[in-house]
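In this section we turn from sequence analysis to structure. A common task in structural bioinformatics is to predict how a protein folds when a small molecule is present, because the ligand can shape the pocket around it. The inputs are simple: the amino acid sequence and a SMILES string for the ligand, here coenzyme A. Study the lines below before reading on.
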Amino acid sequence: MDGITLRPGGAVDAGALARLHRAARAAALPGLHERWTEAEVAAWLRAVPMAEAGGVLVATDPAGGILGYLARDRTVDEVLHLYVAPGRQRRGVGTCLLRAAQREAGPRGLALFCLRRNHGARAFYERHGFRPTAHREDPSANEEGEPDVRYCWAPPTGSDDRSHRMSESTNEPTIHKGLVGVYADVSAVSKVMPETNSLTYRGYAVQDLAETCSFEEVAYLLWEGELPTARQLEAFRAETAAEREISPALHRVIREFPKDAHPMDAIRTAVSFMGLEDPETADVSHDAQYRKAKRLFARIPTAIGAAYRVSKGLDPVAPDPRHSFAENAFHLIQGRVPPPEVLKAFDVSMILYAEHTFNASTYTARLVTSSGADMHGAITAGIASLKGPLHGGANEAVMHMLKEIGDPKIAREWLQSRFDHKALVMGFGHRVYKSGDSRVPTMKKYAERMAEVVGDRTWMAISRELADEMLTKKNIHPNLDFPAGPAYYLMGFDIPLFTPIFVASRITGWSAHVLEQAADNRLIRPLSWYTGPEQRPVPPMSERG
Ligand SMILES: CC(C)(COP(=O)(O)OP(=O)(O)OC[C@H]1O[C@@H](n2cnc3c(N)ncnc32)[C@H](O)[C@@H]1OP(=O)(O)O)[C@@H](O)C(=O)NCCC(=O)NCCS
């Protein structure tokens, strides 16, 4: 069999697609061969969430028939043979194929591609528990003069308590509280694979990048899609190092910040102010947005350092263009450059924090971008989102928790009191990883190294007790913030600086997503299901209360 095999992330060759088209034509199934070019199908198939799904159904338009079932580890030819038999009656074929495909896909479920105009098919798939997720509009209108919209439908997954179908008997929608399990779009920036606890940036395992690359190389990779050559890296470093100064006006504004302002509020305000000053703020072309991202990358540490030092009654330190990103960050905040092992641990944390698919702050930045807004607006909003303790703010909360416990001997007892109060334990749990965060082993290794360098083993000893007990009693694993918190503390940073340091890293991932969103944009605008009072007359003032 010389067909193709679809595997997660696997390529789809043009020859096989041509056969798919021919077979569709021979089977008199409309849709694919009329509307979809081979290149489009190839692009869509590559975007299929195969890592999660057990297979993919391809539905046709307008009759609602299923063209075929593309199984994991099966070839298109095999599948067509099985499911697209010429002369087959169209009515009922959908159910028959769906059942067969569901059986074959097993517990992983199915993903589905179909067209929006295909209302009959849509209702059919919804009845079978599929959830429409990513969609893309074809810029060229079809023969009815409407744009074709292709939906990627996520497979029916295990139920989440807080996602519920409001009523089985009516057409009320399924609400995905917290957007749990929803694919909101495609992205080529990074990939989380919870089933193997792994994470890749542009195809490279994050732990390999952390061990072998500098943060500047990773920033370049996230933006450009490829790692830099030595010459490209040198040019990138020179370009961004030359952009590190912040304006005298921003320095004046920073001096006006309340001395007890949280550094996250300070950096959010500083970035917003940079947007006021930037000569290219209004230009949302790709090139201008990219230049602004690089300026933010260069200047955010300067603003964090200036705001922090001023709040402590110290003078800001000027950035040094000869320093690496990590050296410069310490120089700006602490006024000194630490030994290489500390710089390496910091750089590792920057790499691990740089990007993580559609987390809350990244999605916030994409959402802002989707309205056509500019880079500074998107990043300001991203910072606001990151501050929350359920997200980036957790690294600060972890250190407060470790300090509150203070002694490894009482860690388990302390944890039990949290359990008794049904309280959250910061630095544990994750929306996507349920059996371990891919970034934790690397960060933990460097946090342990910091403990050795500094000669203060208390925090990691408490951490070990907590992690053991959480796993034993709750089966919940630590996330990246858990080792990052004590690592930053041991590097000599004040606790309120931990999340701003996260900002200095995540600006790379956020802006890579802003560029990606803008390159293939559609306004993000979900629906809400109204549960308020029925429509009623406005009462006069005398009848209220
Ligand atoms: C990250 C987080 C918001 C993910 O939330 P989520 O995907 O909605 O996960 P859920 O709230 O559905 O968690 C499932 C269960 O584990 C429990 N759980 C999850 N994280 C927990 C934590 N840190 N401490 C105690 N229990 C936790 C939940 O209470 C829930 O229990 P239940 O089923 O009895 O109600 C959540 O784990 C959390 O608040 N963690 C602490 C903050 C943190 O470290 N954030 C940084 C994330 S990188």
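The two ends are 76 Å apart (CA to CA). As an exercise, try to locate the residues that line the coenzyme A site and compare them with your own expectations.
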